[in-house]
Amino acid sequence: MINSPIDEIKTRLDVVEVIGSYIKLQKVGINYRAICPFHSEKKPSFFVSPQRQMWHCFGACGEGGDIFKFVMKIEGVEFGDALKILAQKAGVELKRQDPKLLSERQRLYEICELTARFFEKQLESKSGEEVKKYLAKRGISEQSIKKWRIGYSPDVWQGLSDFLVSDGYKREEIERAGLAIKSEKGLSAFYDRFRGRIIFPIFDLNSQVIGFTGRIFGQKAKEEVAKYVNTPNTLLYDKSRILYGLDKAKIAIRKENQCILVEGQTDVIMVSQAGFENVVATSGTALTDEQLRILKRYSNNLLLSFDMDIAGDAATKRGIDLAQTREFGIKVITMPEGKDPADIVFQNPQQWKKLVDKAKSIYEFYFDTAFLRFNPKTLDGKKEIARNLLPALKRIPNKIEQSFWVQRLAQKLEVKEKDIEEEMRKASASGGWRGQIPTQLAGSDPDSSGRNPKSRKEKIEERIISLILKSKQSIDLVEKNLLSFFSQQAQEILIRLKKGKKMNSEFFNELSLKSENEEIEKKEIIPEIKCCLLELRSLKIKNKLDQISQEIKKAEQEKNIKKTENLSQEFNLLSKELK
């Protein structure tokens, strides 16, 4: 019998489908595995068990749990928000709570959703009709307007705020949602952030509204104001994590195994409308490490389609450098001068397709740009080309690929390959196209999850139990006198296994999942367990020796000769046992 929405959600949803909607899973036997989305790694250590409806990372972060824990972790939300997300996926209706009892985060979600509806409704007004005509002129269809929930903010000071207040929300909450600004003239005066603008809602990965971008329109366009206004960072919206359109593009990105990156919302809408649904926008910001982590769940391949050149914006360069550090395959869609993707799609969708098909690798783009800017026939030109390209080539992690481009550069500059290699050794990896890479990208950080790393003893215990689960008869190797070497939690599992009883604890399920994915030949299991048991015994003796050593020091300080002698004898006996 299902007693709660939680049980009903778990009954309706499969852990593989839920996790598979966020990251790429590969079937391995009865389970699935993937690169862990919660820490940096190259070898997959993240496993999902459909049988147990659980997941666990056996790598550095050691995270694990059920579908609720996964959504909380990957979305960075509290349990209540994860419940709401999964209820929506499962088609489970949650009882509407009293707004006073909702958490601040939940209330902000409701404010953003109501705001999106308010702006959508304004398109039906007289001013809204003008907006629709403008959007149609730009090539955006009625279907796309509805799909992307495009709206309009009336050019009044408190139209939205008054509407939200009438629905039971406080002006301070509206300000915290990034929708109102506190006036400097009055302590309690607020005015709407978005006024007289075309509104593009910003969605999280579950298509929940979390922020907005407002484009200048009508009378505002004649005033000296910013062309675009964006929601500031809030409890829901963090621009360093969000990619516009990813909620709608993630399935297509996985299917196509590549993601098209453009700069603006209109570019995304028009490119998607033309049938290229694997498109997202950085919304005018440089690519961040967090955005790249999220994109890595869906594909390792990026197609860049924004205004860039080898001497261009430093922030763009840093984003590309981060993507290279994360080992993305990067190509550049070379755009006609003065055109953006929305223009090209509107004028000729087929031309856009040709540009995508002809996308160059990032290094081809570097080469073409450098050789266009400088004359390779002059000495100064050769030096400038090398100065621009060598830092980029130095960062190529694959030595075969690096050798290929070094050879290409030597040929094009008509110089010796060894001279290019010598200059590359001198070149700083932080020069040219290089930006500042966060130190954590240099390798996997075992403490990046915030969890305490496991001790050597814990790792050995888990190894022994996972091997025993692979070969049940090997439980006899753990004799009664050896049980004291294990922690209380491990002892309970071993005792129940000896009695042939089943268990259903989270720890046991983790070890069972680990056992199922343990790659070891059957004949090696018993020798491996024996080796681990010896190591466990050795660790216990070493810990005891450390304890006795401290007691000896204390006895010597107290000048207790008899106690010192007795402890020394015990120390010597244990030392012999250890040998």
List keywords for this structure.
DNA primase DNAg catalytic core, N-terminal domain; 16 strands; DNA Primase, Chain A; 11% strand; 579 residues; alpha+beta; five-stranded mixed beta sheet; five-stranded antiparallel beta sheet; 4 domains; Dna Topoisomerase Vi A Subunit, Chain: A, domain 2
Q: Please report the number of helical segments.
A: 24
Radius of gyration: 30 Å
SS-derived structural category = alpha+beta
Strand order in the largest sheet: 1-2-3-4-5
Taking the alpha carbons of the first and last residues, their distance comes to 59 Å
Assigned CATH class of the largest domain = Alpha Beta
CATH topology of the largest domain: Dna Topoisomerase Vi A Subunit, Chain: A, domain 2
Q: Regions with pLDDT < 50 over 5+ consecutive residues?
A: 430-451
The overall average pLDDT, rounded, is: 84
